[in-house]
Design the sequence.
């Protein structure tokens, strides 16, 4: 099992460009999450999906949209990237809600 | 806002010593979890302690929880250089999606 996979690993964007971060899990988990991690800080929740077909805002949703494509895949879209969105983005999944399993992250730089 | 706050922010010890990290939080919780992050990697779950538990062990890890003080501690015994990483506490307040709120982390360096 690959666990949680994320693509791309690295991305550089110019201000105003758009992009989609992809996340997939092969553990048949119901819940999936998107976090961002800024230097020296913990993770902050952007959006989450408690189950297929549902999505909800987390702590820092502004500037982002998500799609729960199916049970396996949960994508994060930046419609018009801003320098403040420079961060490392992590996707996670969970079945029982107790333990979350994290992907390796996407390092995004917005110039 | 960060629910959990770790203390200290950074800790440097010699191999073989014990490392203790503390976490304080603000609201009622369903459980508290500790995660580890190696440099440039994703987070890995270490241990979970429920609100009705006071202490839990897993290998060289010992976690305590004091709900009256809204605090938790993580003890790593007989530390190894490979334990060098950032350690985060995360609180679960319950709810449908079981969201976690993470603290800002403790950077542990174990010197060989």
Sequence:
């Amino acid at each position: 099992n690959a666990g949680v996979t994320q693509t791309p690993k690295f991305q550089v964007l110019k201000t105003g460009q758009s992009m989609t971060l992809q996340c997939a899990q092969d553990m048949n988990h119901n819940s999936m999450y998107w976090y961002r991690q800024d230097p020296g800080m913990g993770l902050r929740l952007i959006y989450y999906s408690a189950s297929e077909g549902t999505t909800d805002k987390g702590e820092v949703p502004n500037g982002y949209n998500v799609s729960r494509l199916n049970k396996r895949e949960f994508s994060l879209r930046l419609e018009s990237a801003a320098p403040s969105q420079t961060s490392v983005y992590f996707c996670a999944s969970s079945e029982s809600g107790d333990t979350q399993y994290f992907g390796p992250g996407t390092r995004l730089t917005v110039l | 806002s960060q629910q959990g706050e770790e203390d200290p922010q950074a800790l440097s010890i010699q191999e073989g010593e014990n490392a203790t990290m503390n976490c304080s939080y603000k609201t009622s919780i369903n459980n508290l979890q500790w995660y580890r992050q190696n440099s440039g990697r994703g987070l890995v779950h270490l241990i979970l302690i429920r609100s009705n538990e006071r202490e839990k062990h897993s290998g060289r890890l010992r976690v305590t929880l004091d709900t009256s003080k809204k605090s938790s501690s993580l003890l790593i015994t007989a530390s190894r250089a490979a334990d060098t990483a950032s350690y985060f506490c995360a609180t679960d307040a319950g709810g449908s999606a079981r969201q976690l709120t993470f603290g800002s982390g403790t950077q542990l360096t174990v010197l060989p």
